[in-house]
Amino acid sequence: MISVLLLVLCYFIGSIPFSYIIVKIFKGVDLRTVGSKNVGATNAGRVLGKWGFISSFLLDMLKSYVPLLILKQSYSTDFLLLCALFLILGHTYTIFLNFKGGKGVATGLGVFLALSPKSVVFALLVFVVAVGIFKMVSLGSVLAAITLLITVLFTEKNSNFIIFTFFVALFVIYKHKDNIKRIINGTEKKIGEKVD
User: Fold this and answer.
1) Residue 194 confidence class, pLDDT cut points 50, 70, 90
2) Total number of domains constituting the chain
3) Which domain holds residue 171?
């Protein structure tokens, strides 16, 4: 019973739409109606600038990192993976915004920072380099997801963790399908491009 309650709690924590809240408070705008219409840190950055992106990203990351770090003291890896899944699903399908949420990158990062920090190093490096060169967070996110999966394959021995990472990486890539189309078409927005 406690396990079920923890999973429900993880979903609700993951569902807190920080990007939406921050943009609504400081700009009075519904994030679902501007830019990419995505309720995530990148779109918050388009509306509020760099500080909007950074604050939204950090809060979305911490809402998965902190609960998992706490639960890590008392529960098995397999249960933690279930909690992680519910945190990510809460973020991407938030009950507070009619199940329309972000793409899971920041929340996913929080998950892996808590459960397998060493696997995040190369993924973060690829993300930073890709964004630095191409100025597209979406491209950096997709490449980082692929890098994370490859790193986990070589560094982790828990088969359930590897399977979990495979599906998280696949899910992140799927959530970026529209971005991938725009990247191919040359119409993807770059860092610094604001919306009115």
Assistant:
1) low
2) 1
3) 2-185
